[in-house]
TrEMBL record:
Involved in DNA repair and RecF pathway recombination. GO terms for cellular component: bacterial nucleoid. Transmembrane segments: none annotated. SUPFAM superfamilies: ArfGap/RecO-like zinc finger (SSF57863), Nucleic acid-binding proteins (SSF50249). Residues 1-74 form the DNA replication/recombination mediator RecO N-terminal domain. This is DNA repair protein RecO. Pfam families: RecO_C, RecO_N. Keywords: DNA damage, DNA recombination, DNA repair. It comes from Streptococcus danieliae. PANTHER family: DNA REPAIR PROTEIN RECO. InterPro entries: ARFGAP/RecO (IPR037278), DNA_rep/recomb_RecO_N (IPR022572), NA-bd_OB-fold (IPR012340), RecO (IPR003717), RecO_C (IPR042242). GO terms for biological process: DNA recombination; double-strand break repair. The lineage of its organism: Bacteria, Bacillati, Bacillota, Bacilli, Lactobacillales.
Amino acid sequence: METVQSRGLVLYNRPYREKDRLVKIFTEKAGKRMFFVRNVEKSQRLAQIQPLVVGDYIFKLRQEGLGYIDEVSVETAYPKLQGDIYSLAYASYVLALADASIQDGQADPALFQFVTKTLDLMEAGLDYEVLTLIFEMQILDRFGTRLVLSECCFCHRSGLPFDYSFVYDGVLCPDHYEQDVHRAHFKPNCLFLLERFQAVSLEELESIRLSKETKADLRQTLDTFYQEYVDIHLKAKKFLDSLDEWGSLLKEKK
Ligand SMILES: [Zn+2]
C-alpha cells in the first residue's frame, strides 16, 4: 500500500455492514477513491467523512480496492452553505456532477480546484444558481462536449442572432439557418451568456448580476443541452428541480 498526503473533498458516505462506512473522496492527487472506515460511530471520523468536508488527508491507497484514512485535518465543511436547503441542494448537485464527470482513480487537480473554488464562492454568499450554471458549462468538456456558441459553424461570423443546431453542435447565423431545419431557437441572450460562461473565471463572477427570469431561461437552455449531450440522471438534480418547483409554489402563496 502506498501512503499519500493530499487535500480531499468528501463526495458521500454510505453504511457498510453494521458499524462501518464506505466514503468516496475526491482527492486532489489521486482522483476519486473509495475508503473503508471501520467502527465509525466510536471514532472521531463521522464528522470528518460527511459530504462537503474539505481537508488535508493522509491515506493508504491500493492500486485497486478500498483505501484507508490515516489522518484528517478538516479545513472546512462549508457551514453557511450547509445551513440553507437551497444552496445545499445546488452544492450537492455540483458534487454529483464532478463525481459523474471523471473515472475513479483518475487524478484531475484542475477539476478539484474548480469544484472547491465554486463551493468557496457559494460559501462566501455569491449567487449559487449562477455559480452552478458556470460550473455545468465549464465541466461539459469532461463529458466530451464542447459547444460552439461564439460563431456560426459555417461562416464563422459572430455577434448575430443565432439559432442552435444539435446536428452541427454549434450555432447558425441567419444566412445558414437552412442548414438545419430542426435547429433550436433559444433566447438570444441565453446563448450569449452561456458562451461567456464557458470562459469566465470565477473571480470575475462578482460583477455578474442576472435577473430571476434570465436565470430561469438559462437553466432551461442548459438542461436541454445536458439532456442532449450528457444524458445522466442524477438524484441531486432531480431534488434540485423539485425544490425549485416546491419553492416557487411557496413563494406564490406568500
Ligand atoms: Zn453563417
